[in-house]
Design brief:
By secondary structure, the protein is of the alpha+beta class. The protein has 3 domains: about 50 residues; about 120 residues, Immunoglobulin-like, CATH 2.60.40; about 70 residues, no CATH class. The strands form 5 sheets. It has a 5-stranded antiparallel beta sheet with strand order 1-2-9-6-7, with no helix packed on it. It has a 4-stranded antiparallel beta sheet with strand order 5-4-10-11, with no helix packed on it. The termini are far apart. The mean pLDDT is about 80.
Length: about 250
């Protein structure tokens, strides 16, 4: 075997060795990337597994604002910095179905937004563990705590909203029907006035409406002008102060 043949063989062996090293390095890098992606996906899946919430009490406050309660029924807390990552959607049906995204704005400014108005725990206002204060950016939304969400939507009639949906930061989704069998809320007649319009948004004529005064009234009161969207509470004589009513529509 000549010297040139030996050099050529050695050079070929070196090329093969470099190729093998490159292939092994690329394989290791690919495995690391795949492993990292799987680990990240597993982490998101675990987070999503522990996330859960439920919606109830979808109630219209007026012609542009509605509110609903959303309970953290999962096993994990949502820190205040993650609250703005919660997505709120409304499903609108006004001839055709449209799904609309409502953006978070805790200051309550703008034409359309959602914000956290109050926090409840075991039917009591406020929470004791990691008290949530979205304005001050402190605390957490802990399991079994209830957020009262205030929404404003101006480009769509309130009565055309069929569903409200919430998507949690890691992807858990739930929906609440705005046309449930019973609606309830609070209505107030200001001093000097004799009526107030209530938006029940049931999408059908209520079979029964019950009123309970929140304070003493010296005047007769009744319900009138009932339709699929609203009804009116009237009193015979104006009061000097604000008169409040709890109402339930079936």
């Amino acid at each position: 075997m000549g010297q040139s043949t030996i050099v050529a063989a050695a050079f070929s062996a070196m090329i093969i060795l470099v190729g093998v090293i490159a292939i092994v390095s690329t394989s290791i890098s690919s495995i690391e990337k795949i492993s990292g992606a799987l680990e990240q996906q597993m982490g998101l899946s675990v987070d999503k597994f522990y996330e859960e919430c439920s919606i109830d009490s979808v109630i219209a406050a007026n012609s542009t604002n509605f509110r609903f309660n959303v309970t953290n029924t999962g096993q994990t807390s949502i820190v205040v910095s993650e609250i703005d990552k919660i997505d709120v959607f409304v499903t609108i049906n006004s001839g055709r179905e449209i799904v609309k995204h409502i953006g978070f704005n805790q200051s309550g400014t703008g034409s359309e937004y959602w914000r956290v108005s109050r926090v409840f725990f075991k039917n009591a206002l406020g929470d004791k563990v990691n008290p949530l204060d979205v304005d001050a950016l402190v605390g957490s939304w802990d399991p079994l705590e209830v957020l009262e969400i205030d929404c404003r939507i101006t480009t769509t009639p309130i009565n055309s909203i069929d569903y409200v949906s919430v998507v949690m930061p890691n992807g858990f989704k739930t929906s609440g029907n705005s046309a449930s069998a019973a609606k309830m809320g609070v209505a107030t007649i200001t001093g000097g006035d004799t009526s107030v319009t209530v938006y029940h948004i049931m999408g059908a004529l209520p079979r029964n409406i019950q009123l309970t005064p929140m304070n003493q009234t010296l005047s007769q009161y009744w319900v009138s002008d009932v339709n699929q969207i609203t009804f009116t509470i009237k009193i015979a004589q104006p009061q000097t102060g604000t008169l409040g009513f709890y109402w339930v529509a079936h």
